[in-house]
Amino acid sequence: MERSDYRGRFAPSPTGPLHFGSLVAALGSYLDAKHHNGTWLVRIEDLDTPRTVKGAADDILRTLEACGLHWDETVIYQSRRTTAYQAAFEQLRTDNLLYPCACSRKEITDSALHGIDGQIYPGTCRKGVPAGREGRAWRVRADDQAISFDDALQGRITQHLESEIGDFVVKRADGLFAYQLAVVVDDAAQGITHVVRGADLLTSTARQIYLQRLLGFATPAYTHLPIAVNAQGEKLGKQTLAAPVGTHSPVATLLRALAFLRQELPAELLGHAPESVLIWAIAHWNKDRLKGIMNIPV
Ligand code: GLU
User: Is 255 helix (H, G, I), strand (E, B) or coil?
Assistant: First the structure.
C-alpha cells in the first residue's frame, strides 16, 4: 500500500533504559502513524549530554525492535546536529530576537512568579545584562499574543508566552542548545506532520509553535497522550525508579501498553508474535478513548 504524507516520530532522551511511560509514547506515536499509513521515525534526543547515559540509546532501540516497533528511516541523533541548531540560533539572533542572560537560577527563583511550567522569567536581562555581569545563556524574546492550537486529545490550548512562561532559554549557560530549539529544528528537518507524545510536554507546545513561526517552519498537528503516573501522581521515569521494559516478554509489554491506551485486544491474540499484535492494533487504533485524559495511574 502506498504511504501517505503523514510523518510521525518517537523522540526518546537516552537517560536510561526504556520504561513503561516512554513505551506508551512510542507505541501511541507508532500506531497513529501506521493507522494513517504514514512513516514513523525515531530520533534520539541525546543533546543534554550531562544527562545522557552511555549505552541507553542502543538499549532503547533494542527494546523497540524486540516489541516489533520498527522505524522507517535512519535514526538521527541530536548530538550530531549542532550545526543545524547553530544555524537556527544565528537566524534568530540576526533577527534581533535573542539576548544574553546573566541571571542565575537562584536569582530567578527569588524574583519570579511560579507559572504553569516553572518560574516565569521576569525579563531582567531584556534591556541588557547588568554592569559587571556576563551573559551566558541566551533567551528568545516572547510576546504576549495568544498562541492557540487544537490538540487531538486535550482540546484547544491557549498560552500567552510573555506572561505565562516569560522569555525562554534557547541556548543554555553550559553552551548546549535547549530542547525547545532542537525539537523545533528537528521536527522541521524531518518533515514531521504529526507529533504524538506524552501530555507532560503539553505546556511546551506553545513555545515550540512560537519558534516555528519565528523560523518560518510549518506547525505539525499535536496529540498529547496521557502519561503513566504512580500512586502519588508522579510521572513514571528514572526519578521514580520505573522498571525498565526489557526485551524478555515483548507481547506482555505491548498488551499492557495497549490496555493503558484503552485499546481492547481480543484474547486470541495472546501468545502471538509482537508483529501480529501490532497489525491488529494498527487496524483498530482509536485514540478518541483517551480524549481529555492527562494521566493514568499504573
Ligand atoms: N525527548 C523528550 C522526552 O523524552 C521528548 C520530546 C518530544 O517528544 O517532543 O521527554
Answer: helix
Q: What is the pTM of this model?
A: 0.95
Residues paired with residue 293 on neighbouring β-strands, in sequence order? none
- What number does the ligand 1 atom closest to the CA of 208 have? 9
Closest ligand 1 atom to residue 197 Cα is: 8
**Cβ of 227 below 6 Å from ligand 1:** no
Q: Ligand 1: which of 22, 176, 201 to mutate, judged by most atoms within 8 Å of the beta carbon? A: 201
Q: Are 13 and 198 in contact (CB under 8 A)?
A: no
Angle formed by the axes of helices 274-284 and 20-35, to 10°?
Answer: 60
Q: pLDDT (tens digit, 9 = 90+) per residue, 180-226?
A: 999 999 999 999 999 999 999 999 999 999 999 999 999 999 999 99
Q: Check pocket membership of 183 for ligand 1, CB cut-off 6 A.
A: yes
User: Is the distance from the beta carbon of residue 12 to the nearest atom of ligand 1 less than 6 Å?
Assistant: yes
- Is the CB of 15 within 6 Å of ligand 1? no
- Whether residue 24 has its Cβ less than 6 Å from ligand 1: no
Side-chain-facing half-sphere of 108: CA atoms under 13 Å: 19
Q: How far is the CA of 206 from the centre of ligand 1 (A)?
A: 15
226-256 pLDDT per residue, tens: 999 988 888 876 666 678 888 888 999 999 9
Domains contained in the chain, CATH given: 7-80+190-199+217-297 (3.40.50.620), 83-179 (3.40.50.620)
Q: Can you tell me which residue has the cell 516555528?
A: 212
No. of helices (H) and no. of strands (E), the chain:
9, 14
Mean residue pLDDT of the chain comes to 94
Over residues 261-283, mean pLDDT: 88
In 3D space, the residue among 12, 11, 20 whose CA is nearest the CA of residue 244 turns out to be: 20
**Contact present, 260 and 298 (Cβ < 8 Å):** yes
